[in-house]
Amino acid sequence: MEQYDLIGLGIGPYNLGLATLTTEKSNLKTIFFDQNGQFAWHPGMLIEGTDLQVSFLADLVTFANPTSKYTFLNYLHEHNRLYKFFFFHKFEMPRAEYASYLKWVVEQLPNCHFKSEVKDVIDHSDHYEVVVNHWGEQKERSYFAKHVVLGTGSTPMIPFELDDIGSEHVHHSSQYVYLKDRTIKANDITIVGSGQSASEIFYDLLKLQEHFNYHLSWYTRSPGFLQLDNSKLGQEVFTPDYVDYFHELPFQERKDSLDHLGQLRKGIDRDTIHSIHELLYHRSVDNKKLPVTIQPLTEIQKVEKNGSSLKVKARQWQKDEDVSFETEKVILATGYKPNIPDWFNQRFEGEIEWEDDKRFKVDDNFKLVFKDRKRDHHFYTLTNLEHSHGTGATNLGLAVDRNIQIINEIAGETIYEEKRDTIFTQFDPN
């Protein structure tokens, strides 16, 4: 029976980084599966002119091995774009170019397989059996591994029932680019959310507004449309040092800390929010009335069909007042939730320890904690980690450190050095 050291479930940036690092510098035998037909990173949000909120150093490999041939800088070099990026004068990667970089990497890796849906994972006491439907070949096959890692990412969060309303009328921000041509033909467009995705969509539609005839609205339940705090010392929470500190806190303290650090974790990039305000200001010269509504403190509770339009019911929670209005399109930039496969709960819900009804317990090296702790075959997870490893659970730079820890533990030796004592801030008084 052929057995792998590690099987990866899902191929997004996190597992792709793991696949890359194991391929390049270890003797680990690994294979990764993804149900999609090909690799694609958030294709519905690749709005022209948008950048990531992190540095190009937060690619798949640099924090582990800056000399790797899979760095973003080498991608630029291979595509004769290094001088162009040099004069771009930014640390941030354009979103579209980051997506192209990821695709460039995955096309070079022999251990990444698409059109391959993981249907089940069976624990055989000393190894795992992973059942895969290779739907492109109409074939089902079992693979065996000492360890598995869950990297199934997230799925769109829809905060209320949509009944039978089609996606052409109400859709998540993840579909924005696909439906944009239809959206801009409406008379009224409403965006819901207060983060970077909401702001990018609002700005994109605001720039187009003069060429069309729609009223543009932006609502959020948050207290305001707040700028992301990217202060240099503040951002040091996105480091392995802080993750180590955070993981040692009691569960309730960890939950509370996520709220305390809200502005470091969620918010609108400075350039985006400034560009929005400047465009609004220029268009309002002579106090011209703008076909724009921007309203915080308002939670959208229900959207229902009303003839050819939509009726939106909301609540201004600070004044405890009901709000209702009509619109033709609603775009929900309401974030994401962990994508946990059905087979996971069926197989493992009763076998692992939980911190509450939704959050499983994860040890410091990203392994699920089983009730039977005497095991040498492990189930790692890169999904649903916010409660266990904090603010950086979805941070691209910290994904590399996660992968380093997993690789070193599986290999039983230091393949990549784990960097600590890397910042000026001290979190633990001892």
Automatic annotation (TrEMBL):
Cofactor(s) the protein requires to work: FAD
UniProt keywords, alphabetically: FAD, Flavoprotein, Monooxygenase, NADP, Oxidoreductase
Reaction(s) catalysed (UniProt annotation): L-lysine + NADPH + O2 = N(6)-hydroxy-L-lysine + NADP(+) + H2O
Root EC class: oxidoreductase
Matching InterPro entries: FAD/NAD-bd_sf, Lys/Orn_oxygenase
EC number(s) reported in the record: 1.14.13.59
Keyword presence, Flavoprotein: yes
Superkingdom in the source lineage: Bacteria
Pathway the protein acts in: Siderophore biosynthesis
GO terms assigned for molecular function: L-lysine 6-monooxygenase (NADPH) activity
Annotated family: Belongs to the lysine N(6)-hydroxylase/L-ornithine N(5)-oxygenase family.
Protein name: L-lysine N6-monooxygenase MbtG
Native species: Gracilibacillus salitolerans
Source taxonomy: Bacteria, Bacillati, Bacillota, Bacilli, Bacillales
